[in-house]
Design a protein that fits this description.
By secondary structure, the chain is of the alpha/beta class. Strands 2-3-1-4-7 form a 5-stranded parallel sheet, sandwiched between helices. A two-stranded antiparallel ribbon has the order 5-6. Helix 4 crosses helix 5, helix 5 runs antiparallel to helix 6 and helix 8 packs across helix 9. The protein is globular. The two termini are 37 Å apart. The model has no long low-confidence stretch (mean pLDDT 91).
């Protein structure tokens, strides 16, 4: 493995090598952090995770993407996961934890990781903790993106999109000049299937039922930080940095 990657390094532009080297030197002094982001859909996890990732030199582990990557790469765990998916079954918790276990051994995860979308249940949280314990580490912080359902509903069901350009509007926070119409082209705006009240309600129900107990589980371990996720993104970033500093 080493020889092939060394050969390809010669082909990497010097600027890229220097940038990566500087990044690693800057990262060397950062404390290790293993973080879990928990929050309902629309609570802003996706906005904050790239900021946290860059600030603390962590790798971002989105379990859905990792599963797809493992399946595509035909890793032993990926092959097992594909068998389950082909049968229309859910991929087992042990498999997902195994894939996380493999991922966090990569150099990009040396300083720690951000887990997003996992664990969704207390059993998953326990399995994750057992796996980390074997490596002699633990979850440092669980960032709880706490937000009222009513605010989320307003946030999400108010989103409208111009399909061909991807321009987004919000009926309350960033309305188009003419309701339901794109400012630039005058074409009709649409709402994503996931952004309707009915879909949101079922996703929120699942979140409260399955995932809220995960927050309680980590509260008992004293690692949960509650964020005011209804605030504007910049203010949430400030809160996150305070919690993690």
């Amino acid at each position: 493995m080493a020889s092939s990657s060394a050969a390809t390094l010669e082909d990497v532009p010097s600027m890229d090598l220097m940038t990566e080297l500087l990044r690693r030197m800057k990262c060397a002094s950062k404390p290790d952090k293993r973080l879990i982001l928990i929050g309902p859909p629309g609570s802003g996890k996706g906005t904050q995770s790239p900021i946290i990732k860059d600030e603390f030199c962590l790798c971002h582990l989105a379990t859905g993407d990792m599963l797809r990557a493992a399946v595509a790469a035909k890793t032993p765990l990926g092959v097992k996961a594909k068998e389950a998916m082909d049968k229309g079954q859910l991929v087992s918790d042990d498999l997902v934890v195994g894939i996380i276990d493999e991922a966090i051994k990569k150099p990009s995860c040396q300083k720690g990781f951000i887990l997003d979308g996992f664990p969704r249940t207390v059993v998953q949280a326990q399995k994750l903790d057992e796996m980390l314990e074997k490596q002699g580490v633990k979850v440092d912080k669980v960032l709880n993106f706490a937000i009222d359902d009513a605010i989320l509903e307003e946030r999400i069901t108010g989103r409208w999109i111009h399909p061909s350009s991807g321009r987004t509007y919000h009926t309350k926070f960033a309305p188009p000049k003419t309701p339901g119409v794109d400012d630039v082209t005058g074409e009709h705006l649409i709402q994503r299937k996931d952004d309707t009240a009915a879909v949101l309600k079922s996703r929120l129900d699942a979140f409260h039922k399955q995932t809220e107990p995960v927050i309680s589980y980590y509260k008992q371990k004293g690692v949960v930080a509650d964020l005011h996720a209804e605030k504007p993104p910049k203010e949430v970033t400030v809160e996150v940095e305070k919690v993690l500093s």
